[in-house]
């Protein structure tokens, strides 16, 4: 090797070290300032409450403040775009759910970000199943009778959801696709008014998440016909799964995790992932998850990314087949 060649390679190695070592040092000292946790929903909702509960649990270990920054709007796209365009230093992270990770790339013709390329996957938070519920006075007393009624009366039933493109909306669209039924969608602005009209009988049915509706389910204010989880819920042990009542391949759930901008230092990702997983054993977090009917999903960033892409691959064909668009 010529002297010129050796000098060139040595210079390249030095340059690489000059950029890598400071980056590693910053990662090892992380965090040195407050961390902004973006929630793409208004304050007070389920996603916001979960984020604040986890932030409180993680804050002592990090030794820095975790500040919740609510950025609602455009079906989570406003908050997601903000994070995608942030500096990838670990000081801006976000709560992300089905919308960001699995739905919006199919619901919108064009997004300002790519959910697969523009984010760093830090770790999953948890998931909670959706249950099919009807008004208590509805004539069908069980799932079999409900399905028979829906098939015998196409277009006469209606269902509520917290809004177009929500997991609740798409869960019913998957159900309709799997069962060959025609039930009219009535979108609301949030879960509370949707639940109120199902309880009041203005709307026949809906898919309802346990986080929002567990109390009214247990109180009998709605009748639960089936649950969209792989196994029966410990909170509703007498309720059969959709697979048990004859609708296979219709597992429907909402899930959440933590993202950052693409290109975050691996050591920072590892630190945040470790603290997130530790938080699941915190009593306050466990109580909140129990209250919400939420199953914690500890694991690696790679497992969270695989879950997200798997859900996108599962929901994309349903959204296209049902012709659902939000733009």
Q: Topology of this structure?
A:
Layout: H1 3-28, E1 35-39, H2 46-62, E2 66-70, H3 77-84, E3 92-97, H4 98-107, E4 119-134, H5 143-152, E5 158-161, H6 167-179, E6 184-187, H7 191-200, E7 205-209, H8 210-218, E8 223-227, E9 253-261, H9 266-279, H10 283-292, E10 295-296, H11 301-321
Parallel strand pairs: 1-2, 1-3, 5-6, 5-7
Antiparallel strand pairs: 3-9, 4-7, 4-8, 4-9, 4-10
Helix pairs in contact: 2-9, 2-10, 4-11, 6-11
Protein name: Tripartite-type tricarboxylate transporter receptor subunit TctC
Family: Belongs to the UPF0065 (bug) family.
Keywords: Receptor, Signal
Can you describe what's shown?
This protein has 327 residues and is of the alpha/beta class. It has two domains: 186 residues, Bordetella uptake gene, domain 1 (D-Maltodextrin-Binding Protein, domain 2), CATH 3.40.190; 99 residues, 3-Layer(aba) Sandwich (D-Maltodextrin-Binding Protein, domain 2). The chain is built from eleven helices and ten strands. Strands 1, 2, 3, 4, 5, 6, 7, 8, 9 and 10 form a ten-stranded mixed sheet that branches. The longest helix has 26 residues. InterPro entries: BUG, Bug_dom1, TAT_signal.
Structural class: alpha/beta
CATH architecture of the largest domain: 3-Layer(aba) Sandwich
Task: Enter the CATH topology name of the largest domain.
Answer: D-Maltodextrin-Binding Protein, domain 2
Number of helices: 11
Query: What is the CA-CA span between the terminal residues?
Result: 60 Å
CATH superfamily of the largest domain: Bordetella uptake gene, domain 1
Query: Helicity range of the residues?
Result: 40-55%
- How much of the sequence is in beta strands? 15-25%
The strand count comes to 10
Low-pLDDT stretches are 1-25
Q: What sort of overall outline do the alpha carbons produce when their principal axes are compared?
A: globular
- Round the Cα radius of gyration to an integer and report it: 23 Å
Mean pLDDT: 90
Largest sheet: 10 strands, mixed
CATH class of the largest domain: Alpha Beta
Give the tally of structural domains.
Answer: 2
- SSE run: HEHEHEHEHEHEHEHEEHHEH
